[in-house]
Amino acid sequence: MKFKILCSKRAVLVAALSFVVLLIGSFILWPSLQRFADLFRNKEVPPPVMEYGIPVDSFNVVTSEIAPGKNLSEILGEHGISAAQVDSLLTLSKGKFDLRSIRAGHRCKAFVQPDSTQRLAYWVYEITPVQYVVFSFKDSMSVHVAEKPVRIVRKVSRTTIKSSLWNAIEKAKMNTALALDLSEIYAWEIDFFGLQQNDSFKVVYDEMFVDSVSIGVAKIHAAVFNHMGKTYYAFSYMQDSVDSYWNENGQSLKKAFLKAPLKFSRITSGFSRSRLHPVLKIFRPHYGIDYSAPVGTPVMTIGSGVVIHKGYSGSAGNWIKIKHAASFITSYMHLSRFARGVSVGSRVQQGQVIGYVGSTGYSTGAHLDFRVWNGGKPINPLKVQSPPEKPLRKENLEAFMKHRNRMMQLLK
């Protein structure tokens, strides 16, 4: 009996000691066991880097720009693509992409097999910063057009003008597309050729990005422009399915006449009853405004109307005269050429290009001589009083005011 009890005690003691040794061993050996287990554990594989829907890491990628004078056959020929294959691409591209529209300066990428064959697998041409076309030369040739994802970022920016709107925007590192957009929004309110030093503006807008690169401005939601001591507001709001710009009181910014017939330029000579003519060297009235601009700059009619003269004269050179409503007449002189479709009797719309800046007739350099008559009398184009379009309807005014107040907070 004593022997059995002794054996039982020994068994318990051995079991306890074994457990302790196992516990200590596990603690000491655990890191090594863990490292050993890691060798067999399934590790997460990072997803492949994709561009244009192509796994970039699987190919050697050659990035370049289309050289002037190069056609598709020459470009693809450098990668071993035959003329017969290019002919097949013509068929495959029908209804998708016109191969003749490939232009110099656009970016393209060749995806080449990373083996001894150096075979071209894909060739990508960027149509725009957003849209691209992929030519596949894998198992069978194919062509498809797609778009990169565009990221929209809401921004609020402000700056002060020291010389010109363009320079101010560029110096402030804003997207330069804002210059054109703002000039179009305020085309009826502000003469951008007469901006003054220390004029300023603040703008709420959406900027578009592709691959972290800005590609332009999607929309301006609101802006405030301080010009010559006066404040001009602009708020985007939709009425009758048309997105237009309105001032803080719901009045349309659009008016019967634009402030100027050019988008960007500078005034070199103003309205005068007595000016020394630069060619004739005599004093005579100058019933217009001279805008200096490069030859070929588009000239727009400031208002809708009917063309009553188109032709050439010794002093005015190529010039156009347009009759508008309410007995207004405008003329555009020294044009290099006329726009297509513009003829005597044709109706033109506000902002339509009617010709291009030149130096024809009595002229010492490229410029536009722009004149306005009302009731047969010449008037200063910079002082034309233009009636606005219809304001927001009453049923839209409350919603507009709420939108305006939200934007006002951002413009403070």
TrEMBL record:
UniProt record, GO biological process: proteolysis
Cell compartment(s), UniProt: Cell envelope
Cofactor(s) this protein requires: Zn(2+)
Record domain M23ase beta-sheet core: where: 285-381
Keyword Zinc assigned: yes
Molecular function GO labels: metal ion binding; metalloendopeptidase activity
InterPro entries (UniProt xref): Cell_wall_metabolism_enzyme, Csd3_N2, Dup_hybrid_motif, M23ase_b-sheet_dom
Major localization listed first in the record, in broad terms: other
Domain annotation Csd3-like second N-terminal: ranges: 156-271
Assigned GO CC terms: cell envelope
Keyword vocabulary terms for this entry: Hydrolase, Membrane, Metal-binding, Metalloprotease, Protease, Transmembrane, Transmembrane helix, Zinc
Transmembrane segments: 12-33
Keyword Metal-binding assigned: yes
One Pfam family named in its UniProt record: Peptidase_M23
Annotated protein name in UniProt: Murein DD-endopeptidase MepM/ murein hydrolase activator NlpD
Source organism of this protein record: Acetobacteroides hydrogenigenes
